[in-house]
Amino acid sequence: MKRPRTLGELKASGWPETHGHRSVHDEARSNLKAKLRTGAPLFPGVYGYEETVIPALVRAVLARQHFILLGLRGQAKTRILRGLTSLLDPELPALDTPLHDHPLSPVSPEGRRLLEEAGDDTPLVWLTPEDRYVEKLATPDVTVADLIGELDPIKAARRGEGLSDLEAVHYGLVPRANRGIFAINELADLPARVQVALFNVLEEGDVQVRGFPLRLPLDVWLVFSANPEDYTARGRIVTPLKDRIDAEIRTHYPRTLEDGLVITRAEARLPEGVRIPEFVARVVERVAFLARRDPRVDPASGVSQRLPIALLEQVAAGAEARALAQGETPPTARPRDVYGGLAAITGKLELEYEGELVGAEALARELIARAFAEEWGERPGLETVTAWFEDGRVLELPDEAATAWERVAAVEPLAELARPGGGEDVQERVAWAEFALEALVGRGELARLEAGSGYRKAAPAPAEGGRETLPP
φ, ψ for residue 233 (rounded to 5)? Predict the structure, then answer.
């Protein structure tokens, strides 16, 4: 269907009767209801919130409410806010003004002038959902003029109407989001005096430009995100503003390992053709879960879901690099690749004092070892492998899979574990053998050699008050 190009054509199309006086809240509500009826995905790309956050969002949208998402870093808050555009109409007619004025009831002086001058011949522009979404990261240097607007003396001079010209106002981000969504990330970082400027938008639906006789009844959906720990660390949300935000929705990290795996696999950018055994992917996810529970990691900062995503990407890259060097196909991830991805862990952990004493890298290695032990769980057979190392034997596994398997095969109890786990594929057998060895490292029964490619019996724990004796 051809889109109307002028106001007259729009009136003739019947649009005013079907959509003409819907607010952005009504529009989102109508489209959400249609999705609920058909069972269409509400927020594509958002996982693990099906029973918690998404039902709260549905209620807020149906109730036509402004809302704030509260949660630690890496909990998909920004993705959810940007996903709200899926609740907007595919196209929306507007006047060609900074405020995207409604063709039938403009709120800006420019829009009213256009209608007076051209009438039904007033040209239209058509907005996509992305055109109607405005986002701002709150920082301490944001001003009221940035959000609301101010008089532009240069514009006034060019128009020759003097400082009383209402069309000489330079509109801020909030008015420019008229008939759309305005999102502020990290609201607590916004200076208190700027937060106060949002009161009228939330309560009355309008803005007033300071020192100017201009009142704009805006149609804008305000949504926010914030980290609740930032309330005292860097700033806070002023109480009157919190009171005017209709709904406070709490986000969270994945509640189950399976939810985390779905998110990580969906977000990780993995090279094509790289095989990542299921237990390796699960260990990567466990590292994040263990870090969130570890008392040496600052719980107020949180452990972002970006940690397992970045770590899985590093694991795949390590497998690809080894396969290229050894001429092996297809590239297959091994447990050593998780240790090779330490760079994806250390920078994402904010440590408490006890953690600083241990050090980020040492703590990351410990988390990986514990993750392998947890993932192995109650599977039998590790005791016989431990016994092989009792006489001071050392097992080194090179990068080349065929040679590594020859050495594994020489340790019969380890080979017995690896054959059924890895099937007929040599690379997967070696990966499974390393899995068993790393589980023993996590249990404290084996130790990794300094080079990281071999294993030996772990030294006994020092007696209380004594000192550990290092192996020769």
Answer: -75, -45
β-bridge partners, 180: 220
Q: Which residues of 259-278 are buried (b: 16+ CB within 10 A; e: fewer)?
A: bbbebbbebbebeeebbbbe
Q: With H, G, I as helix, E, B as strand and everything else as coil, classify residue 46.
A: coil
Residue the block writes with tokens 């900062």: 301
Is residue 437 within 8 Å of residue 446, measured between CB atoms? yes
Structure tokens at 265: 């696999």
Domain boundaries along the sequence of the chain: 7-250, 257-457
* Residue 167: HSE in the Cβ half-sphere, 13 Å Cα cutoff: 12
User: Helix 306-326 and helix 257-267: axis angle, to 10°?
Assistant: 60
Burial call 150-172: b when 16+ CB within 10 Å, e when fewer: bbbeeebeeeeeeeebbbbbbbb
Let me know how long the chain is.
Answer: 472
Contacts of residue 385, defined as CB under 8 A and 6 or more positions apart, other chains included, come to 411, 413, 414, 417, 436, 437, 440
pLDDT tens digits for 130-161? 999 999 999 889 998 899 888 766 665 565 55
Q: Which stretches of 245-334 are DSSP H helices?
A: 257-267, 278-293, 306-326
Q: Please give the model's pTM, rounded to 2 decimal places.
A: 0.87
Q: pLDDT tens for residues 46-95?
A: 999 999 999 999 999 999 999 999 999 999 999 999 999 999 999 999 99
Tell me the average pLDDT of the chain: 90
pLDDT of 164 above 70: no
CATH superfamily, with its number, for domain 7-250? P-loop containing nucleotide triphosphate hydrolases (3.40.50.300)
Burial class (CB in 10 A: 0-12, 13-18, 19+), 349: buried
Spatial CA neighbour of 96 closest among 72, 71, 114:
114
Residue 123 backbone class (left: φ over 0; alpha: ψ -120 to 50; beta: rest):
beta
Rounded to an integer, what distance in angstroms lies between the CA atom of residue 6 and that of residue 346?
A: 58
* Contacts of 154 by beta carbon, 8 Å cutoff, 6+ apart: none
Q: Are 292 and 316 in contact (CB under 8 A)?
A: no
What lies within 8 Å, CB to CB, of 270 at 6+ separation is 276, 312, 313, 316
Q: What is the pLDDT of residues 276-306, one digit of tens each?
A: 999 999 999 999 999 999 999 999 888 999 9
Dihedral class, residue 268 (left if φ above 0, else alpha if ψ from -120 to 50, else beta): beta
Show Cβ contacts of residue 450 under 8 Å, excluding neighbours closer than 6 positions: none
Reported as a single tens digit per residue, the pLDDT across 208-264 is 776 566 678 899 999 999 988 754 445 688 989 999 999 999 999 999 999 999 999
